[in-house]
Amino acid sequence: MASVVNPIRDRLQYSLGYLQGRSFALPRSLSELYGALVAKGTSLTASVLPFLSVLALPLYGGSTGTVNFVFFFLTWSALVISHDQLTLELYGTLLVRCFCFLLPALATLAFDIAVPKVSKSLKARGERQLPTRHGRDKLLAIVAVAVCNVLLEGFLQAGLELLFTRVLHLKSLVKVNSFVPLPWDIFTSLIQGLVIRGVLHYAIHRFVLHTNPSILRTWHLDWQHSVEHPFSLVAAYDHPVNHLLAVWLPTILPAVLFRWHVLTWYLFLTIASLEELLVFSGYSVLPSAIILPGMARRTEAHFDSVRKGDKAGNFGHLGLLDFLLRTACSSEGTIVDDVKDEAKERQLQERIEAAVQAAMAGMEDRKANNKVEDGQQDDTDQHQIPDEDSKAGAADDNDGSEEEGEPADRRPSAPPSRKYGRFCFW
Ligand SMILES: [Zn+2]
User: Fold this and answer.
1) How many Å lie between the centroid of ligand 1 and the Cα of residue 336?
2) What sign does the CA torsion over 135, 137, 141, 144 have?
3) Domains of the chain: total
């Protein structure tokens, strides 16, 4: 009995002493509280700045790739040496989520509210898709829930890391060291991650949040599908349990399963965050010709199908699983249609470019012919030989193919006619 009680008593005494020691550090007056807050804020800012420099170096470095990489490596190594693993992982995660999803999503919402006339011209469905239609209270609720859900992701990740490393004494969820992973390793990890995330999100969204009756399904319909047309923040507007299950879990699971390097995790999270930001944005102008516009249309079709009470479809991110498993919404084209349209558009683009090149070549040839003609005219004027025989001779040299009375050098030369011939069928 004593062997059980004694360790518990020791642990309690240790915890009590620890808390007493910590309590002395707590502020006892308003000025001490102010000083503590300023010190904490300064330390947070000082920690964030090196992170931003690491994230920005590959994008904005003005030097060559090798120099950029060396700077990146040195900055990253300094960060790893000067911060503990948990801080690095969580600060980076929150920064990526804030700068690649939350802040741009809030900025687009502010833009939609501030200049609705401009915004509706950019929205795929015009005025109907403006978030202002939902009213101030609903918009505030969406903003609050989306911000809380993003912060919740960070807290949960921190909790899991603490559980794994401090309680269970296992390895951390992701690797944090001064090495930088090789590009091929990053590429294969990203592909693995996208496949796992896509399959898991599709399965949870389809079977847990839509098909099978449950409280989670009710929450999903009452929260996220209460929004008529999606805009960026709606990607994180769902019941927290649903958000963690359908959005956060599929994203973090591949990183934990394969114990990625934290830089690979940052990159994967950046891709996932930008995808959510753009696919839910509702804007018709997106920085991609084929994938993102199709994904955005299918997301809108998913909201339409639920709102109209039709059979719900388009559960996946990319649309490939919906196409293969026949759950695509009939009102919207599948990913295969997108690929076909893109192929047609590219063919058309190539033809236009070739036609422009041929037209320019024809113009240059015409200029050259005119110069030659002018030169010959000068020679004729100089020599004053208005001889009928010479004209006949010139006609004979042209095998009699030209029209009567037309000088040989006014015919289009052979190369341009071949180039134009290529486009005649078009
Ligand atoms: Zn849904």
Assistant:
1) 22
2) positive
3) 1
